[in-house]
Automatic annotation (TrEMBL):
<dbReference type="InterPro" id="IPR017853">
    <property type="entry name" value="GH"/>
</dbReference>
<dbReference type="InterPro" id="IPR016286">
    <property type="entry name" value="FUC_metazoa-typ"/>
</dbReference>
<dbReference type="InterPro" id="IPR000933">
    <property type="entry name" value="Glyco_hydro_29"/>
</dbReference>
<dbReference type="GO" id="GO:0005764">
    <property type="term" value="C:lysosome"/>
</dbReference>
<keyword id="KW-0326">Glycosidase</keyword>
<protein>
    <recommendedName>
        <fullName>alpha-L-fucosidase</fullName>
        <ecNumber>3.2.1.51</ecNumber>
    </recommendedName>
</protein>
<feature type="site" description="May be important for catalysis">
    <location>
        <position position="163"/>
    </location>
</feature>
<dbReference type="InterPro" id="IPR057739">
    <property type="entry name" value="Glyco_hydro_29_N"/>
</dbReference>
<keyword id="KW-0378">Hydrolase</keyword>
<comment type="function">
    <text>Alpha-L-fucosidase is responsible for hydrolyzing the alpha-1,6-linked fucose joined to the reducing-end N-acetylglucosamine of the carbohydrate moieties of glycoproteins.</text>
</comment>
<feature type="domain" description="Glycoside hydrolase family 29 N-terminal">
    <location>
        <begin position="2"/>
        <end position="229"/>
    </location>
</feature>
<keyword id="KW-0732">Signal</keyword>
<dbReference type="GO" id="GO:0004560">
    <property type="term" value="F:alpha-L-fucosidase activity"/>
</dbReference>
<dbReference type="Pfam" id="PF01120">
    <property type="entry name" value="Alpha_L_fucos"/>
</dbReference>
<dbReference type="GO" id="GO:0006004">
    <property type="term" value="P:fucose metabolic process"/>
</dbReference>
<dbReference type="GO" id="GO:0016139">
    <property type="term" value="P:glycoside catabolic process"/>
</dbReference>
<comment type="similarity">
    <text>Belongs to the glycosyl hydrolase 29 family.</text>
</comment>
Amino acid sequence: MTNTPYGKDLLGPFVDAFRAEGLRIGFYYSLIDWHHPDFTVDPRHPQRNHPDAMKINEGRDIRRYAAFMREQVRELLTGFGRIDIMWFDFSYPQWKLGELVGKGHQDWESEKLVRLVRELAPDIIINNRLDLAGLQPDIVTPEQYMPRAWPKRDGGRVVWEACQTLSGSWGYHRDEDTWKSTEQLVQMLVGTVAIGGNLLMNVGPTARGTLDHRAISALSAYEEWMALHERSIVGCTQSDFTAPPDCRLTQNGDRLYIHLFNWPYKHLHFDALAGKVEYAQFLHDASEVTWLRPSANTLWANTQFPVAEDELTFVLPVRRPKVTVPVIEVKLKSGSAAGIQK
């Protein structure tokens, strides 16, 4: 700390500020340090195309670097109180460029590193980027990718977290212009929880340490939507019920949440839900949503239509509510909530 231009602890005040807001603490730790004298040139290193890259590596010892990392991690886990997550980033043993090879668990001495972390913080969460194929990670972290279903390993579901960006860049980029729309941001959150995941959304500060207006606008989109729809996300996970077209489902016990990505005309048909609903309402205004009862009507009369015995048809307003993603909260009858997945 005292060897930095600032001359003081930079991390402590951040930790204190987050704790003051009731937030738990997780540290991002870069396994890559191109400035360390023992970090060898590899296929991702800025000097990878240097004609004397192999000669530069002479005298460098990645084992000393691994030992240096362990001492840094020791400091992080002993100097700032309880730490809940160590988010290591990242391994790339499959990368090759001429005689240069990428780095993995042997370079980081990942087994020693994990043992140290577990010793100092037994209840901590460690992600899956230490290249430990034989060790089940606490959490799997797909990056800049939206899975279509709950990720699995060896046939079983994993605990997972999608790491995404508000724009196309992890750090602040003045001229970067692929910022996600409000609708896209909220749908990414809903879509992640609907298949059992958590969303880690990155925001990069400017060189002044502030957030620019685009980042503030993006974060405000979450703040505004979550203010009325938080309970369709927090504590929820994937449901066993099959979602109607253009919808995503989340569930928490006897509460089923239907997120409408596309607004249908007047009716929302939901299979296998008939007889299981006690009450339904929109979350944004708490107004009741009614549904049609099963009927044997036919389509031959222009004011009648059939509703199957196992089908529930919600009756919706013709006009879409002015909400980024409208949500119907369904209170399931006792014994009907078995559709939740863990």
